[in-house]
Design a protein that fits this description.
Elements (H helix, E strand, L loop, with lengths): L3 E4 L8 H15 L10 H20 L5 H15 L5 H14 L10 H9 L3 E6 L3 H10 L8 E4 H4 L6 H11 L6 E5 L2 H10 L3 E5 L13 E3 L5 H4 L1
Parallel strand pairs: 1-2, 1-4, 2-3, 4-5, 5-6
Length: 230
């Protein structure tokens, strides 16, 4: 039924939450933030994640630029703890981008599932992540050779769920919506975006979060379930 399979990267293959948490814990220690009045690393990480999500929403809506997002998420977090230090925020932003792609935690069964699929389908990536960072993740996790096309929002100039990035991806892969499948964790960006252009979808929901979305082609909790669907 399908010829082309498009994957999201973060939170679908690459375990963003785990990798990010490891890096933020390391940064907390490296910059000795406890001596700067931030006494609880988990609280620091929790507040960073809160502000990061808010800023990513703005980035997806093209209301802020990439460089502003990188530093601003740390500046706002530090300010919440009474630290108004732009240099520290910039240093944290730089190191986060430097260290994160070196982390290699993946969701269970990523390699075995991709090995199963690679000889049966053309596999591709569509991601909203920063281009230079996403390529490093794929290389460091030995994932890059599985994929025919790697499409980033920076390359296209549009972010998921825009139909433009899906149109571009289909064109680049020589694929049609009717023979393509999108697999991702984000109901809005991945699932609705693919649905709007006529692509079938697989909603990856590893934590079994409740939702009210209907009309999803497939929903899975583990990537190994793709071997049943496909």
């Amino acid at each position: 039924m399908y010829t082309h399979i498009f994957f999201d990267l973060d939170r679908t293959l690459w375990d963003f939450e785990r990798n990010s948490h490891e890096v933020l814990t390391e940064l907390y220690k490296n910059y000795d933030l406890i001596t700067k009045g931030i006494t609880d690393s988990n609280h620091f990480i929790e507040r960073y994640k809160f502000h990061n999500e808010k800023l990513w929403d703005l980035y997806r809506e093209n209301k802020i630029e990439k460089d502003k997002l990188r530093d601003e998420r740390f500046r706002i977090t530090l300010a919440e703890f009474g630290l108004n230090d732009k240099k520290l925020a910039a240093d944290l932003g730089h190191d986060y981008i430097e260290y994160c792609p070196k982390k290699t935690n993946l969701f269970p069964f990523v390699h075995s599932t991709l090995n199963y699929l690679k000889d049966r389908y053309y596999l591709h990536i569509i991601t909203n992540g920063f281009e230079e960072v996403q390529y490093k993740k794929l290389e460091n996790c030995n994932l890059i050779d599985y994929f025919e096309q790697i499409i980033t929002s920076e390359q296209v100039g549009f972010k998921k769920p825009s139909t433009e990035i899906f149109k571009f991806s289909l064109l680049k892969a020589f694929a049609k919506p009717s023979d393509s499948l999108m697999i991702g964790d984000d109901l809005h960006a991945d699932i609705l975006g693919a649905k709007d252009i006529g692509m079938a979808q697989v909603y990856f929901n590893p934590f079994k979060e409740k939702h009210s979305s209907s009309g999803i082609t497939h929903e899975i909790n583990c990537l190994s379930e793709l071997e049943v669907i496909l």
